[in-house]
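Researcher: Here's the sequence for the chain we discussed earlier.
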Amino acid sequence: MVKPFDRAVSGFNHNITHAGRVFHVQTEDSGMNNPNIITHLFVGGNILASKKTSYAELLKAENLQELVRQLMEDQHKQMLRNVVSGVYDSVDGAAHAYQPGQLAPAAEGKGSTKHAPPRSTLPPEVEAARALSTPPQMNEMGAQTLFGEDLISEKSLDEVILNYLAGETEG
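Model: Thanks. This is the structure I predict for it:
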C-alpha cells in the first residue's frame, strides 16, 4: 500500500562552477498546504534567479509523492542546464557577495553599462545615529546609548498623556 503524501518531499542542492563563478541551485517542495516547487539560483549568497511551479492540480493523485519528486527533479535539472548553457552569464547584478551591513563601493560600475544594485533605505534610527555630531553620553551603567534616556519617567502613561494634552511639558 502506498503511504499517503503528508509532508514536503526532500529537496536538492547542487553547486556548479561555470564561467569562473560558483552557482548554487536549490530546489524545495513547500508541501501539500502550499503545493509549490521552488528553485533558486544563488551566486555569492544572492538569489540570481527563481522558478516557482504549482502542483495544486495534482493533489488528489494516488502517486503524488512520486509526481512531486519528478517535477522537482525536472525543474532542478532545467536550472542546471540553464547555467551550463550560459543563460545567466550576462547577469552580473548579484555576482557580488557582501557581508551583512556592507555596502557596495561607490566606484563599482563606473565607466560601464552595469547598474549598481539599489540601496536599501536605512531605518530612521540608524540615519539619526549616523547624523549625530557628538557621541552619545555614557549612562550610569557605562554603556553608550542613543535613544530613550530622556523619555523615562516615574509618571504613569495616563499622566504623561494628560500632561501632554493639557500642554504641560517639563522643560
